[in-house]
Write a structure and sequence with these properties.
globular, alpha/beta, Rossmann fold, Quinone Oxidoreductase, Chain A, domain 1, 2 domains, 7-stranded mixed beta sheet, 17 strands, 6-stranded parallel beta sheet
């Protein structure tokens, strides 16, 4: 298979607004180094983490990537569905032509930091181009899945995040679970995955998107309503903001709260007495252990999950796609499609 010398893609040239995203058609196609795999990007989901990284939300000053300062230009794209087209030295067990995905946050523990990770599209170039190089150890074969490339490309970030939240919180059968931001990509994924675990799920969302949340298997609580006191074993919170204290108060004694987002605001206030007097446990969930993502891959290959993809866009229309995501115009996921590369 002959590979082109250059490719089209979107480069982030600095922190800032959508004007910091530059479309180029002369980006050199990367060559896989030892242990790496070159994949042709088939579909790339749109995620809040890409917007947060673009604007520098994760840090202060120049330390605004997932794991520190970004190197510019950077090709973002935290969701990857791709086809294996070349192998680096030493890579075995990864057949050419395989359809693959990888977690967004890839565990790379060190002696000093057992939860250290790197993120595709942040610490190294991601899926917003026609090709991407990914360490083979983080790739998973999803060739067996009945889902389309677009559906698979919508899943790694949202479903990986949601599955990690449920894993960390230990959600089990019969437990009552509240999911905030339930109509978004991660929220709907959390609803679906919690239902698969046998939980009773309540999804908090706007009235206009309630149908999608009900279709995923949850009861619906309006976005502005306070959840009932001491009603939930687990709260999966993607919103933060002003309602944070109400969600803590909604946990039963011994309850668990897990978070991986703060679209309603990262700074919250609450009463510490509620936490310690009720023996509550709080989990921050970013690092994804490899076996947790591998469990998600099993569900994808078995076709037990199907994401709601509301719209697709040509990759060149990334600014519009991100604007639609930021404005919460659609439930579920939005997906970018790169230009055709190999026939």
């Amino acid at each position: 298979m002959s590979l082109p010398a250059t490719m089209s893609g979107v480069q982030l040239v600095r922190h800032g607004g959508p004007e910091a995203l530059v479309w180029r058609e002369d980006i050199p196609v990367p060559h896989p180094g030892p242990g790496d795999v070159l994949v042709r990007v088939l579909a790339a989901g749109v995620n809040a983490t890409d917007i947060n990284t673009r604007v520098g939300w994760y840090g202060k000053g120049e330390e605004a990537g997932w794991s520190g300062a970004l190197t510019f230009p950077r090709i973002q794209g935290s969701d990857l569905c791709g086809e294996v087209v070349a192998l680096g030295e030493g890579v075995v067990g990864m057949p050419l032509g395989a359809r693959v995905i990888c977690p967004t946050n890839q565990s790379e523990p060190t002696a000093d930091n057992p939860v250290h990770f790197v993120a595709i599209g942040s610490e190294y170039d991601g899926a917003f181009a026609q090709f991407a190089c990914v360490p083979a150890r983080h790739l998973h074969d999803v060739s067996a899945s009945p889902l389309s490339d677009v559906e698979v490309g919508a899943m790694p970030c949202a479903y990986g995040t949601a599955n990690n939240l449920l894993h960390r919180a230990g959600v089990g059968p019969g437990e009552r679970v509240l999911v905030t931001g339930a109509s978004g990509g991660v929220g709907l994924a959390a609803v679906q995955l919690a239902v698969l675990r046998g939980a009773e799920v309540v999804g908090q969302c706007s009235a206009g998107k309630a149908a999608a949340v009900r279709e995923a298997g949850a009861e619906v609580l309006h976005r502005e309503a306070a959840p009932p006191l001491r009603s939930f074993h687990v709260v999966i919170d993607l919103v933060g903001g002003a309602g944070w204290s109400d969600r803590i108060e909604a946990l039963r004694p011994g309850g668990r709260y897990a978070t991986s987002g703060a679209v309603g605001g990262p700074v919250v206030t609450g009463d510490l007495r509620t936490i310690y007097l009720n023996d509550l446990t709080i989990f921050g969930a970013t690092n994804q252990p490899g076996d947790v993502f591998a469990g998600l891959v099993e569900l994808i290959n078995a076709g037990r999950l199907r994401p709601l993809v509301s719209r697709t866009y040509p990759l060149r229309e990334i600014a519009q796609a991100q604007a639609d995501l930021a404005a919460s115009r659609y439930p579920g996921k939005l997906v970018l499609l790169p230009p055709e590369t190999l026939q």
